[in-house]
Amino acid sequence: MSEGDSIGESVHGKPSVVYRFFSRLGQIYQSWLDKSTPYTAVRWIVTLGLSFIYMIRVYLLQGWYIVTYALGIYHLNLFIAFLSPKVDPSLMEDSDDGPSLPTRQNEEFRPFIRRLPEFKFWHSATKGILFAMACTFFEAFNVPVFWPILVMYFIMLFCITMKRQIKHMIKYRYIPFTHGKRKYKGKEDVGKTFAS
């Protein structure tokens, strides 16, 4: 290989202007993501606002139903991954390769670890909405379909998928929504002191 053959390098061995531009753009983007991490409610409000704008756009344009259906399926897959444990207890039932969720009352408590963390769920959902919004600017994605069939099919798919997920949650006794750390109560203080 010669001196300028590697990716992002110019003839003189320095990174090219285009490579430096996109590298800097990626750093700025990552910086904004890092700054937004603690603001969970604000992030989701912005995403819901984008979703609302997208729905209004699709309603006013009266088209792009296939794109909307694909976005719905994508969000459903993200939501199922968000509700699922990182290590599937049904796969761990036969083997003792690693930790599993407790199935009996007297077993040790292990925290629920998601397959898809909340931040990645939010980030993927927001990118999906923005991508779908961009698709509405191109007539090629406006495939004519009878939209009520898509709505009925999506509702059926949602109900079947959620029923299966809820059965899985009941069978392996895990709840994906916990609020904070467990609090244990000690014995009540009776006010007597020990004197020696």
Automatic annotation (TrEMBL):
GO-annotated cellular components: endoplasmic reticulum; Golgi membrane
Keyword flag Flavoprotein: no
Main location: membrane
Membrane topology: Multi-pass membrane protein
Keywords: Membrane, Transmembrane, Transmembrane helix
Membrane spanning residue stretches: 41-60, 66-83, 145-162
GO terms under biological process: protein retention in ER lumen; retrograde vesicle-mediated transport, Golgi to endoplasmic reticulum
A Pfam family of this chain: Rer1
Locations listed in the record: Membrane
Keyword Transmembrane included in the entry's annotation: yes
Annotated function: Involved in the retrieval of endoplasmic reticulum membrane proteins from the early Golgi compartment.
Family statement: Belongs to the RER1 family.
The name this protein goes by in its record: Protein RER1
Lineage: Eukaryota, Metazoa, Chordata, Craniata, Vertebrata
GN (gene name): Rer1
